[in-house]
Amino acid sequence: MSKKDRNNNNPFYDPSLNARHRSSKRFKTFTLSSLIFSIAFLAFFLFDIISKGSPAFEQAYINIPVTYNEKTIKNTRTAIDKKYRKIISRAWLRGLPKLAEANPEFMGKTIDTWVLADDQVDQYLKGHYHKLKRKDRALIDNMKTHGKVELKFNEIFFLNGDSKIPEFAGLNSAIVGSIFTLLITMAFAFPIGVMTAIYLEEFAEDNKFTQIIEVNINNLAAIPSILFGLLGLAIFINLFGLPRSSPLVGGLTLALMTLPIIIVSSRAALRSVPDSIRQAAYGLGLTKIEVTRDHVLPLAFPGILTGSIIGLAQAMGETAPLIIIGMIAFIPDAPGSIMEAATVMPAQLFTWAGMPERMYIEKTAAGIMVLLTILISLNAIAIYLRKKFEVKW
Amino acid sequence: MVEGKIRMSKDNKVKVKVEKLNLWYGENHALHGISTDIYENKITALIGPSGCGKSTFLRCLNRMNDLISSVNIEGQIIIDRKNIYDKDVDEVSVRKRVGMVFQQPNPFPKSIYDNVAYAPIKHGIVSKGKECDELVETSLRKSGLWNEVKDKLNQPGTSLSGGQQQRLCIARTIAIKPEVILMDEPTSALDPISTEKIEALMLELKKDYTIIVVTHNMQQAARVADYTAFFHLGKLVEYDETETIFVNPSNKKTEDYITGRFG
Fold it and tell me: Which of A206, A273, A284, A288 to mutate to test the interface with B (most CBs of B within 10 A)?
């Protein structure tokens, strides 16, 4: 039987179908390759960040004899043998008097101590570019064979603030700054945003005025964030005279930026509450607040929460508006209040990324890892809360 | 007020008096000069083709139409000798005395107990605790749901079947001790067995309440209603005892609708 005959025998034979199925397959290939493309990018990004950043969680220490006495505490350089002076951290020497004060029994003795190494030593040990002289390199190699050089967990990265000495720089002040800033952001943006959404959804009549407001809120959500920085500068710093670089101003500025996101998502959540619930409640002779607070809001709450946390996560990763209001300053110590100068994590990373020393590169990457971890946790919390409060129908 | 509540020995006591009721949705004139009396402790069925205004009329009786801003209402609805559209009447208190059951069972996504207890507590009918427990029990008993749910009062009301949900909604309504109960196609989303239970319940409830029910199902009107009103194009075409409407309608339109010639 020829192919033609076979087709004639088949009542379902449709000559156009082959080409149409091929076209479907092509379409599927396009969509799938787009997906693979984006996954590849994400994988490359994560691999790059993790491979660059993970060494920063370890830091080089060397074990050398340190002499503790009146003289060495006054002139800390003399506490250490000359040959080691190039390979230890200047920042560690600065902390020597405090170390001696905390351990009075050390006085008058020479003790083998694990000492923070210079950033060049650290980079040399990790196989990165370094500027160590041959003499120092030989010394390190020799000490290594005697177990006097070690990479230890890098507490400094989490406990210290920023520093111009790379091995002494950490994220602590930026983390504290971020927490203060985001607390302010949430304290203002969440209640104002949710209340606005409730007014627009539950109270406002649908007229020209509310339509204009609605369009403008949607537009605000898409405005370049740096403009909010200019607004914050003009209002909070110049008009109200609040201290620049402070978490208060930063938080208020980010609140302006987060507000439209919270309003839009809260309105969507309120709108998704079936009208039958409102009808049922009004039908029982309940008042507006009883209907809204006790019947509508609990149903909308998971959506409101999710939108707010996503808004918070976005505010957390924001740098541009904070640069304008001065939160990019060099902050070695964590702020003690919302009025003190502070910086935030992304701004800290921005600063580090511009530093010439090689060690800041891995600190930047490690900082991105910390930031990403927090953002992913925030999103996970959002999902968890939505699932937890979601009402089954 | 007090005399209004005394049951008269004469059978037909007017509970709701509607006078020249006109309603507009914006420009659209939806109800045309409706005047009628609705009798106490009777079931009155409102029938008519879709869009005839029967549901709109029903929602006028507890001022639910006030929730729509484009609605304009003229005329009077007098309950207990007071026009509920008078300026000094709060629509919230109207809805407390004129309860409503909807087409789709719409229990709150709260526990069965809270579904019934929430509104009476807010209205100050009972306080939390034993008093409230008793009210929940009586309301659920009256709606014939008690035996089915007494062991799971803390489960969500939404976990019940459709028919049970609707009876829960009825229990919720009678818990606020209304005098009139409006039902907007209460069985159209339910299966025949649940429908039968609701209808039996309506006949039981009319001893204590005045019931006005919108229905698309003419057999239902014939089965449960004492009086039937036929609406067409926003007008009340005919209103009489159910038997008269179904057996011997005086208007040609009513006859056409009941015999299924349009609708």
Answer: A284
